[in-house]
Design a protein that fits this description.
Order of helices and strands: HEHEEEHEHEEEH
Radius of gyration: 20 Å
Distance between the termini: 41 Å
Strand content: 15-25%
Number of strands: 8
Helix content: 25-40%
């Protein structure tokens, strides 16, 4: 496994501001301390080997589990559906996971829709790893692109099924940004819900 894989992280966040706005539901405060890492995000793909090549050989995420199963699903009553479920490991123990179905009609029913890219996994990386991933993607003939969101700098690319994948780097002042957002998030959401469309992200041009 490539050395850079060990640097891939998921779900980094800076410290909250003190004081922070209390949760709308006080009981959520106790639960949130017990919710761990993201176990996995799952998507449907057509070709598990094409998916493996992209995520393992190109990106560098190791294939850590493959399950072949059969089952019945509501969309296909009375029919046994054969499927394969793969997991590609992240450094914190989470994974990106993918389903592939033996029959084309089942795949078409459940397949991932490429859409506009708003539905996608985002993997936290260091600046060095982001540069390495870009180089690997470009060497494989792919066309990654970057967007500076202000609160993070992101590298994007589509996988063999058209799923957008993001590799995102936190800025040096990520902790301060997280503290600011923790202090203002609920107020900003309330304003949005009330119809206030004033941008609050002054970290990038609008």
């Amino acid at each position: 496994m490539d050395q850079h894989v060990t640097e891939i992280l998921v779900g980094r966040a800076g410290p909250a501001a003190d004081p922070v706005e209390p949760p709308a539901d006080p009981s959520a405060a106790g639960i949130s301390a017990q919710l761990g890492r993201m176990h996995h995000l799952a998507y449907v793909v057509r070709d598990q080997e094409a998916t493996r090549h992209f995520y393992e050989d190109v990106v560098g995420l190791p294939l850590v589990a493959t399950w072949v199963e059969t089952g019945e699903f509501a969309e296909f009553p009375g029919r046994r559906i054969d499927f394969c479920h793969t997991f590609f490991g992240l450094a914190d123990g989470g994974a990106l996971a993918f389903f592939a179905f033996a029959d084309d009609d089942v795949h078409e029913t459940y397949r991932a829709k490429a859409g506009t890219g708003f539905v996608h996994p985002a993997i936290a990386v260091s600046g060095d790893v982001q540069r390495q991933v870009r180089a690997r993607l470009e060497a494989a003939g792919l066309a990654p692109f970057t967007i500076d969101h202000g609160y993070c700098q992101s590298l994007y690319v589509r996988d063999p099924d058209g799923l957008m994948v993001e590799f995102t780097k936190d800025p040096d002042d990520a902790a301060q940004i997280a503290a600011w957002q923790a202090h203002t998030a609920r107020t900003t959401l309330t304003r949005w819900q009330a119809g206030d469309r004033t941008p609050t992200n002054d970290l990038r041009p609008h």
